[in-house]
Amino acid sequence: MHSGILLLQLPWCAEPMSPEGSHQHVRICPAVQLPGPSSALCRPLALRMDSYLIRVNGQGDHAPMLDVHLKTNGNSISLGKVKGRKPRWAVRASEMSKKTFNPVRAIVDSMKVEPNPKKTMISLSLGDPTVFGNLPTNDEVTRAVKEVLDSGRYNGYAPSVGYQSCREAVAAYYNCPEAPLKAQDVILTSGCSQAIELALAVLANPGQNILVPRPGFSLYKTLALSMGIEVKLYNLLPEKAWEIDLEHLESLVDEKTACLIVNNPSNPCGSVFSKSHLQKILAVAARQCVPILADEIYGDMVFADCKYEPIATLSTNVPILSCGGLAKRWLVPGWRMGWILIHDRRDIFGNEIRDGLLRLSQRILGPCTLVQGALEHILHQTPLEFYHNTLSILKSNADLCYAALSAIPGLQPVQPAGAMYLMVGIEMEHFPEFENDVEFTERLISEQSVFCLPASCFEYPNFFRVVITVPEEMILEACGRIQEFCEMHYQGAEGAQDLECDK
To answer: Which of 101, 326, 435, 488 would disulfide-bridge 337, Cβ 3.0–4.6 Å?
Structure first.
């Protein structure tokens, strides 16, 4: 750096700062950019002016030193020599990333256990129906995407909320007199997970809270905490087929409650709410003036002896954002096609929520355009037989699993009515060598090579979740191994007391 002296006339905008060390510091507003030593002096401005004398010293490898003198109202102030800032790397993770926490990953990653090498691993933990190849999607679904790909018409960007024709197709598919829909009521998203994220982001601000089921899908908490939104957990009741404890739910509502999440059919419970129970949930929401975020990704995936009721068809006054997608019913979770259906017949959301969803959708330019192009064909041309066959397999597996596990001392499975899951209670008092459900499932892996998710992942300890999408022979083999495991570790009332006395 060259040595030199700059004499500038700048608008007076210096502000004294607190002393630091032996130097007096002054903040100078950048009203006029300081020129370099070789630049022409700034032209005087038609404002009150004061003189600044800045001596720049330094050369070679030494850090530059600024010898600064200010002359204000005839008084000269020497600021002394100030060492220039030396740049250095200071890259840190954002606060949002630090607040992002996935309970499933946290628990599963902490399970440092190896399966029994003498037994083939059977995983009943992952909610992906495609893993074992026994539940392929329908030929009409794949043919629709192939034709779109070959057409070359869907290779570019789509509107952030999705193509108009595709939104019309979704609206037509779900439209009914009880819950009418038009294209403007549909936002296409990158999977149901993004639909939930957008719905939360448009309804809740940092510092507000949302009401979330316990046990419940862990993504709700993951998304909320990353946004600075508090999560309040309301209880589901296993003795009532996982119905909501409505009294507990309503007790959690306060002036900061932004929305109520209702997951029906349920992950992880496999439960399906009756019409009367849904009406009671809506009554709470109406009394408390709380909008509903309905996670209905498993909509219509219910067994023959049960009926699925979309919650929006049962209310005319509670505003609802219903989230769904292709992932589960059409067995293509990797295609990442989801949607939000806006039900707002009293215009409570108004334009503000719709405009907010539009703006939020512009952060990512919508879901895959190839799948969008195939969406109308997928929704309207997939044969009913495909859905029936899928549900028949799931129902058969659920019945086999429930019957086998019900016969095992120390386990209390809860009969599912839909979706792809079954929850099993562990009578921990009969397995005293295990501290909790996490230890129970860890040992099940190490001894029997069967992996079930501990329900602590879903905020509900002393249960575990079984995925029922695996082939029938795997279900039977896994249940046999679970029985062997429980028989080896089960302690009756007397045995448990003896063990306690020996401690």
So the answer is: 326
**Cα–Cα dist 482/469, whole Å:** 17
CB 398 within 8 A of CB 172: no
Q: Do the beta carbons of residue 11 and residue 45 sit within 8 Å?
A: yes
Q: For residue 188, give the H/E element and its range.
A: strand 186-189
DSSP 268: T
**pLDDT confidence of residue 82:** 55
CA distance 9 to 457: 66
Asked if the model's pLDDT at residue 81 lies above 90, the reply is no
Mind listing the pLDDT tens digit for each residue in 309-336? 999 999 999 999 999 999 999 999 999 9
3-state helix, strand, coil in the chain (%, to 5): 35, 20, 40
What is each CA distance from 112 to 19, 46, 448, in whole angstroms? 54, 73, 15
Backbone angles phi, psi at 333, to 5 degrees: -65, -25
- Pairing, β 411-414 against β 26-28: unpaired
**Residues pairing with 55 in the sheet:** 5, 67
Are 499 and 491 within 8 A, CB to CB? yes
- Give whole-number Cα distances, 232 to 24, 279, 379, 396, 424, in Å: 51, 22, 36, 36, 24
Are 43 and 63 in contact by the 8 Å Cβ rule? The answer is no
**Maximum CA extent, the chain:** 97
- Encoding tokens for residue 15? 């502000």
Q: Residue 444: how many CB atoms within 10 A of its CB?
A: 26
Under 8 Å between Cβ of 375 and 186: no
H or E element, residue 96: helix 95-99
Task: Report how far residue 335's alpha carbon sits from residue 97's, in angstroms, rounded to the nearest whole number.
Answer: 26
Q: How many Cβ atoms from other residues are within 10 Å of residue 41's Cβ?
A: 10
In three-state secondary structure terms, 144 is: helix
DSSP, collapsed to helix, strand or coil, labels residue 446 as helix
131: pLDDT strictly greater than 80: yes
Tell me the pTM: 0.81
